[in-house]
UniProtKB/TrEMBL annotation:
Lineage: Eukaryota, Viridiplantae, Streptophyta, Embryophyta, Tracheophyta
One Pfam family in the UniProt entry: Ku_C
GO cellular component: Ku70:Ku80 complex
Annotated protein name in UniProt: SAP domain-containing protein
Composition-biased stretches (Acidic residues): 1-20
Annotated PANTHER family: KU AUTOANTIGEN DNA HELICASE, X-RAY REPAIR CROSS-COMPLEMENTING PROTEIN 6
Amino acid sequence: MEEDLDDLFRDDDEDPESEFNQDREYSKEMVVFLVDASPPMFAALDNGGDQHEESHFHVALDCISQSLKTQIIGRSNDEVAICFFNTREKKNLQDLNGVFVFNVAEREHLDRPTARLIKEFDCIEESFMHSIGSVHGIMAGSRENSLYNALWVGQALLRKGSSKTTDKRMLIFTNEDDPFGSINGAAKTDMIRTTLQRAKDAQELGISIELLPLSRPDEEFNLSILYADLLGLEGEDIAQYIPSVGEKLEDMKGQLRKRMFKKRKIRRITFSIVNGISIELNTYALIRPTVPGSITWLDSVTNLPLKAERSFICADTGALMQEPPKRFYPYKGKNIMFTTEELSKIKRVSTGHLRLLGFKPLSCLKDYHNLRPATFVYPSDEEIVGSTCIFIALYRSMLRLERCALAFYGSSSQPHMVALVAQDEVTDSSGQVEPPGMHMIYLPYSDDIRHVEELHMDTNVATPRASDDQIGKATALMKRIDLKDFSVCQFANPALQRHYAVLQALALDEDEMPEVSDETLPDEQGMARPGVVNALEEFKISVYGENYDYEASTKAESDAAKKRKAAAETAAMECAHYDWAELCEGGKLNGLTVVELKYYLNAHNLPVTGKKEVLINRIMNHTRKA
């Protein structure tokens, strides 16, 4: 059989859609939502004068619903389970009292979210009291421990999957900081001990337990009573979990959603500092462009996903190849055979580890050196103990000395020089804004940097320059319309928002499509402010003058555009009379006149300024690219 020679030595990582180029996460996430359904969760909250009363139970369900809708779009392979505790009815595989696992037909308890799950979950609050019920799970004189049971059920649901490739989490929603407050004595001590031990057992299995505390009106959630020990929090770590008592309900929802969406590591890499000293780092993708999900082909009858398979057929006999095809490369009339292992060794340029080369002042790093979106790195002690201590020492020294580290990193086919830039932690009144760590910036090779071709090459023509007055007026205008505290995260892609809004409406059988606001449209009210209008008018006068007639100028520009279009059409007709490839290969372009050379340039929308040698070089460069 024939082998594609271009494909022979091609590495999988050369694909622009590969894992390395797109920074795809190698792991998936399994989440169990544990929602407290005790009577205090249903108490009405003060919603700032709004007549529509809400409760902490409603807030928890709303956050979970939004999480499921986002997850089914962005991370459809993740698996979730929804578990209520302190319930009248019970529904779980362990048959434990006070725990109800919510699910829909044709779906396992821990499985990928579906449209039917979201649709029925959005309606559960209306029928919750009737079908599931709410009770005080831990009462005096009873040995029932609903929190212990909920942790047990959550741990059992998260048994499948390896903790090395799967991120397992349990998220607890509750407004009760002392679930054992109604009992005393030895019974209380024993329940607290067994509950903490159950949480510890789950954490030792690689399951992280997180709390989303819901503060009651005029009462702060006290983590120190139980949950600080359950989560393993100490000192300052406790303060970041406590939401402000007086914050608005919408702020509370935003804070809960922020905690629910956790940054997941892309991969784990080894950072070799010097010979014999290496540390372990986790890499994270902070900001990446969002694109619509890939199309999944379905069977027209069963509506199940189709699986694509590829088979090789012998070109001589037409028989189906049972053994994997061998690869070869023709050399001096012979086919040199290669095994998979040999090809792997030939293509191996890098081990994939990050190797420190040295340090440079931060001033040496320019904006245009940022070849592609950077990757955030943070230490981990999972495999190499002591990585965090060494990383912190290096990190603090780089901040103090204002240095960036240069390192070598890459896949087997795409090695990269990278710069490691330390980022100090940024916090505000609401908590952490930017985490401490380092950004791994991918540096360009010399061929990646292109020098911009000068537009005005004719030295006999004066290049127009802006006057100091025009520059001053432009600067004043830019200051007026500058966006304060701008961040790319403030603006959503309106096309993608509408795309997913249509999908959501179709999947959930919604009568009305969710409203999508285009945040990229100009701020007309802001542009109409007197300060902006005055600055814009002064800039126009400084550039065009006071008697500038826009309509007359537009008409003149329209006439000029028609002339340019006619000239381009004429040039295209004349250009077709020449075999430019043959002229370039034969070195015959010098025999043409400047007018003839400009036929090619005008036909291909290339600059026509410069001497004859410049025009010839421009044509030859363009034909090579074509």
